[in-house]
Write a structure and sequence with these properties.
Layout: E1 10-14, H1 19-30, E2 34-39, H2 42-52, E3 57-61, H3 67-81, E4 86-89, H4 104-129, E5 139-144, H5 157-179, E6 184-191, H6 197-208, H7 215-225, H8 233-244, E7 255-258
Parallel strand pairs: 1-2, 1-4, 2-3, 4-5, 5-6, 6-7
Helix pairs in contact: 1-8, 3-4, 4-5, 6-7
Amino acid sequence: MNEFRLDGKVALISGSARGLGAATAETLAAGGAKIVIADVLDTVGKETAAKLGADNAMFVHLDVTQEADWEAAIAAAIKRFGSIDVVVNNAGIETAAFLSDCTLEDFKRTMEINVGGVFLGVKHAIRAMKPGGASGRGGSIVNISSGAGLKGIMGLGAYSTSKGAVRLLTKAAAVECGRLNYGIRVNSVHPGMVKTEMGAKTLQDYVDLGLMSDVASAETAFAAAHLLGLGRPQDVANGVYYLASNAAQWVTGIELSVDGGVVAA
């Protein structure tokens, strides 16, 4: 069971000041990893890092759309903890609109953060982890996609498009890293509806779009669509933990659905 431990690993998680990212940070830290909380929410991010302890975690400001921020964040992680072994590309936004009403500006912004931000995370993780890189001992990249990246979702066309792109970016990176013998595994995780601030926003968005009469009705409908009901942040964090660990050393290029069965249904 030692292969499930994360002792000696350093993990950077984007968008980890709160919500799913914070739950992932706490879970990986519990497994023995040193954690880099990376977010644009400086105050909350510092508080999240402080909860994990000064010896185990640090905070770095990271706007995932800015390449210089990525370079600085990974450099800071290596300087503080000596390596970078896991990068979880978790930061993202959800845009709700019917396609006929979605503005080009909103569509581009969704792509910039959800796809461009993941691209930069993958790019700079590979640069640091590959042989000859600043860390240079391989590692695991985990990209948070969505069940919406596997099937179309009413009212979430831009979001579905972005998460579908993350799915194939993940596979392309996995192939590249494998064929070039970088020792880097790249996988995607596809959550269903999880009880977070973003999940609550989706419920309200469905009301605002006129698809549901009220939030309670929306929650009931979404829960019924999932074979196992709505998820917890911990459920998704556990999936990320597995892919980050050596227990998944023969796993790359997969899409791990942690979705309560919503895609299967």
